[in-house]
Design brief:
CATH architecture of the domain at 368-408 and 434-517: Alpha Horseshoe
Helix content: over 70%
Radius of gyration: 32 Å
Largest sheet: none
Number of helices: 54
Oligomer: single chain
Shape: globular
CATH class of the domain at 368-408 and 434-517: Mainly Alpha
Length: about 900
């Protein structure tokens, strides 16, 4: 019969009658019908049949498994997992359900759960075995376990040679390993067998984009949309691809089609937000992103996009809130991190920016985008040498064509729309595309070579390019400040403020000038003026509180300023964190705990708040509560090792050493190069006298992670605790051969020294420093050794080497000045002055300069500086002893006696206390 001759209403009626006839209560016929629908790629009809069958036969394992497959095809992996587990529960014959379970967990991105539950399964049917091993390969790749991924793919292809899905997994792994040609070859091989496979087509488009073949990538996705015009996911991916390649209007046309297809789908709303963002309509982008977050509060791409939009609109507090929430969940995301860094720069918080960037650059030292951001931060914080280093590294990497590897970071490796969208959005995360990294790099390079005129000319050029951007005059001020021309620096910063009166970066730089000139009152007034114009300015309120604290204002005044910031921005978590930190510094443990509990009540699922609450509970002696809190953080951030480190610390306090070891092992599984984790393990095994267990754990780590240093580092620590330094040195060097971790170089060097092999230690140090000329840690360690041994010549030699790499390191400048003074070098005072200039409130630096002045006969100025140092660090016995000696030299015995009595009263038994007691007896 020709169905086109049947009236439409009658045709619909016949379909309904057919379906109802099939659902007449015969489960076998319903299951057979469902199988035919699945064969025709109609999972919706199959689902209807199977649910009807299960009403009659709820324990039918075959129906449950088929329903799981239909739900997978419909895009419901959660429902599929439920049904496949029921199929297993109802004793489905054979092990086929485990392959379906693998797919369901994979689509939910439950990688650790999937690996733990299914990695040991071996399925009887070759097709099922190939399918499960391929799912595991995808999971291993997503978690960075490439060796395991290779093994899983080999097993899949061993079960079913040329299995298309395994070829796709192999292609994805090739992308992860930066082998684009192989990835392209493999995905094409898969498409030869299954030319319409959606996953293969999507991966092919990603590889084409990574190879700079954007037009081909778009064509591949257009083919996918043509094959599946009603597939929301395919059209959504095409939109993101078009946006990534700058085809905004074509993407907008596809968005119109998507709106007709699924107007309320979160992917549609998110696409709308991305199109609006790409068009520069930040308000519309933010509104669309908020619609997604209203129904899916944890949708990270929308959270990131809201942070980007708020940044572009200048609402920095809201931008920071969103971006910090993103990074709490995915701490390694470059797009979010760079925008948060830009936010910190814009609000004058370069220290906070560096706190973000430094660990990120340790994880990915060759990321040119991060290096450019670091260069900008160092330049903004008046450290041109470090800025130049960052830009030079980025330029060198660009010359070696690392841009391909940077693009590879944008290739979407994980399955699932959320992860895909999150990676796609990274291309939109350029916080300020008008900035010229080349200009900033040029400025910092001139500053590093002390070429003031050229640096100023480059700053002028940047200012001419962007005459309304306060960055230009602000950078110019940094140039002047770097050569201590405070007058012109101040004029430049004030010019930046004329362009943007709320430009906190310039205001902060002016405050730093006030600090350098010891004008705390001027800095305070500067922020009071800013707050008079904008009383809700969170950053200004917190900076004002910081100035009050530095000026040793009453704690109540500092707290009042922080409380104002909290009241002005109740939706912002940062002022609350600032308050807890301040109360902790004041050693007011109870008040810090109350503030942390209040923050947790306001932000119950915020990981940062939970972490600081756990720390406050730990400080207050509430270890059991801290244990519960850090356990919550670990669940909220399952891919972040930091909460596990904290959790292990609490478990150690509770003497739950096995629990602590388990937590640290989980942290190592997430980040094998995390030195704090294996140091923690070593400490537990050593303090509990379980070095045999430690060695067994080390050998297991060596077997599980043969290319990582962690197992050998732990072995070395165990051997060190057994007083076997020669064997420990061998283990540490084995670790170094796998990963060049600076701490391992120090441990290996120390082990060789303790083994009585100074020549080998010196050779190791020389080789390390030659191969890693920018590393300062081993030089610093050798300098400290020299100081402790009073070998000031050796100490000075190593500190000088550090300063060639990091010339503005206040601690090293201070130690170098001390060493030079002990050697009688007249340049000691020059370096001490430089240290106090860079760290005007660093007590040790002020103490060193004051003591040098006293020794060189300028007793009055020296005593003034030593008094300042004592005021900043009243509990430091060395500084107070220096002041007492200076007062004695000046003939003021009464004041010297008072200082010595205070020192003896507040200090436990120590050489310093003994010397003070002897001096008192002599008075």
């Amino acid at each position: 019969m020709n169905t086109r001759q049947i009236p439409p209403r009658l045709s619909i009626l016949l379909v309904a009658l057919a379906l109802s006839a099939c659902g007449s209560g015969d489960p076998a016929s319903l299951i057979a019908s469902a199988k035919s629908y699945l064969a025709k790629n109609d999972p919706t009809a199959a689902t209807l049949q199977l649910k009807t069958a299960l009403k009659e036969a709820p324990t039918n394992a075959e129906a449950r498994l088929l329903l799981a497959k239909a739900l997978l095809e419909s895009g419901d992996p959660v429902g599929a997992e439920t049904e496949v587990r029921r199929a297993i529960e109802y004793k489905y014959p054979g092990d086929a359900p485990f392959a379906v379970l693998g797919r369901a967990l994979l689509l939910q991105r439950e990688f650790p759960k999937m690996i733990a539950e299914l990695s040991d399964k071996s399925l009887a049917e070759p097709q099922d075995q190939a399918d499960l091993r391929t799912s595991l390969a995808f999971a291993y790749t997503a978690t960075g376990k490439n060796a395991e991924a290779h093994a899983a793919i080999d097993a899949a292809l061993g079960a079913v040679p040329k299995y298309p899905r395994a070829l796709v997994a192999q292609a994805q792994l090739a992308v992860a390993e930066n082998n684009l040609p192989l990835a392209f070859e493999l995905v094409d091989a898969a498409l030869t067998q299954v030319p319409d496979d959606p996953q293969a087509l999507m991966l092919k488009a990603d590889v084409e984009l990574a190879q700079n073949h954007s037009a081909q990538a778009v064509k591949t996705l257009e083919r996918l949309v043509e094959l599946r015009p009603d597939a929301v996911s395919a059209r959504y991916v095409l939109i993101t691809m078009l946006l990534r390649t700058g085809q905004v209007e074509i993407a907008a046309a596809q968005l119109d089609s998507l709106k007709k297809l699924a107007p309320n789908d979160p992917r549609t709303l998110y696409s709308e937000a991305m199109v609006a963002y790409s068009r520069g309509n930040m308000q519309a982008a933010l509104a669309a992103a908020q619609k997604v977050l209203a129904v899916a509060p944890d949708h990270l791409p929308s959270l990131l996009l809201s942070g980007l939009a708020n940044y572009q609109m200048g609402t920095y507090s809201a931008a920071e809130e969103a971006l910090r929430a993103v990074l709490a969940r995915v701490p390694n995301d470059t797009g979010a991190l760079r925008t948060l860094v830009a936010t910190y720069i814009r609000t004058g918080r370069t220290a906070a920016a560096l706190e973000l960037l430094e660990p990120a650059l340790i994880r990915t030292p060759n990321d040119t985008a991060l290096l450019h951001s670091a260069g900008e931060v160092y330049l903004a914080s008046n450290n041109p040498a470090k800025a130049a280093e960052m830009y030079e590294r980025a330029t060198a990497l660009d010359k070696t064509n690392v841009s391909d590897r940077v693009r590879l970071a944008q290739v979407r490796l994980a399955s699932g729309d959320t992860a895909r969208a999150f990676k796609d959005l990274e291309s939109l995360a350029d916080a300020n595309p008008t900035l010229s990294a080349a200009d900033l790099a040029l400025i910092s390079a001139h500053l590093r070579r002390h070429e003031l005129e050229q640096a100023l000319a480059a700053a002028d050029a940047l200012q001419k390019k962007q005459p309304t951007n306060p960055l230009g005059p602000n950078i110019k001020g940094v140039v002047y400040a770097s050569v201590r021309d405070f007058k012109n620096a101040r004029a430049s910063f004030e010019q930046a403020l004329k362009l943007d009166p709320k430009y906190v970066a310039a205001e902060t730089n002016l405050a730093q000038l006030d600090f350098a000139e010891l004008n705390l009152d001027g800095a305070r007034k500067r922020f009071e003026k800013l707050l008079a114009a904008d009383p809700r300015n969170e950053q200004a309120l917190l900076s004002y509180a910081g100035i009050l604290a530095t000026a040793k204002a009453p704690a109540a005044d500092v707290r009042a300023a922080i409380d104002k910031a909290i009241a002005a921005n109740p939706a912002s978590v940062r002022p609350r964190l600032y308050l807890i930190a301040f109360l902790t510094q004041q050693r007011d443990v109870k008040a810090a705990l109350v503030a942390a509990q209040s923050a947790e009540a306001a932000f119950p699922n915020n990981p940062e708040v939970l972490e600081i609450l756990g720390a406050a509970q730990q400080s207050a002696g509430e270890s059991n509560q801290a244990l519960e809190t850090f356990s919550r953080v670990a669940k909220v951030l399952p891919q972040n090792p930091a909460p596990l480190i904290r959790l292990a610390g609490v478990q150690v306090n509770l003497k739950d050493y096995d629990g602590a070891i388990a937590s640290l092992q989980k942290a190592i599984a997430l980040q094998p190069d995390l030195t704090s984790a294996w140091l923690g393990l070593a400490s537990i095994y050593t303090t509990t006298e379980r070095t045999d267990d430690g060695l067994r754990a080390a050998r297991k780590l060596q077997k599980d992670l043969p290319k990582r240093a962690v197992g050998f580092a732990l072995e070395g620590q165990m051997l060190t605790s057994r007083k076997k330094p020669a064997e420990a040195a061998v283990a540490f060097r084995e670790g170094l051969a796998r990963e060049p971790i600076p701490l391992l170089s120090i441990l290996a060097y120390a082990a060789l020294q303790n083994a009585g092999k100074p020549d080998q230690a010196a050779a190791l140090a020389q080789r390390w420093q030659k191969e890693h000329p920018k590393d300062t840690q081993l030089h610093t360690f050798q300098g400290q050794q020299g100081l402790l041994a009073k070998d000031y010549r050796t100490a000075a030699e190593h500190y000088r080497a550090v300063l060639e790499i990091d010339p503005d390191n206040v601690t090293i400048l201070n130690n170098y000045a001390w060493s030079l003074n002990e050697l009688g070098d007249p340049k000691a005072l020059e370096y001490a002055q430089r240290a106090t200039s860079l760290g005007p409130y660093t007590s040790t630096a002020i103490d060193t300069q004051g003591w040098i002045l006293v020794q060189r006969g300028d007793t009055k100025q020296g005593i003034d500086m030593l008094r300042r140092a004592v005021n900043l660090a009243p509990q430091d016995p060395d500084i107070r002893l220096h002041l007492a000696k200076a007062l004695l030299k000046a003939g003021d015995k009464a004041a010297a006696k008072s200082e010595l009595e205070t020192l003896v009263a507040q200090t436990d038994a120590s050489p310093v206390r003994t010397e003070a007691q002897q001096m008192l007896k002599a008075l």
